[in-house]
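Supplementary Text 2. Reproducibility record for the structural model of the 138-residue chain.

All settings were left at their defaults, and a single model was retained for analysis rather than an ensemble. We include the record here because the model underlies the residue-level annotations in Supplementary Table 4.
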Amino acid sequence: MALGRSLCVSMFVAASPALAADDFIEGVYLQSEELCTQARKDTLQTLIDAGNVVLSVHGLQGVEYNCEFVQVTKATRSPAWAVTAICQEPGYVFPDVLSVTRVSPTQLDLVSVRPIDDESEASGNSGSYYLCEGVALP
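Retained model, structure tokens:
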């Protein structure tokens, strides 16, 4: 009977990726400190509607674009996480794998493994994001 219980607990832990993300990011992040200031003056939804992307523990969110973080694994030797995401834009769903690295208490750098198809396209899911104190998700 004890073997059955420990197997059950082991299976539960293995099937719970959220357990690996207990110390993952908190708060709302935007791509510049100026955008954070603007979000405090206006609303975060106004910035999203203007085409900006918001980073939170749930993923990346834009006006017609989002990436849901479905699995987060903390690195053991650096202040970073490996993140698996499912992203979507109108008519297209695709996977992405990112590294999220804490550069400072208020800055995170994201690097995506997804290649950019067009040089005129934005840098995809890669870039720096800054913590916006006093800003909450809509």
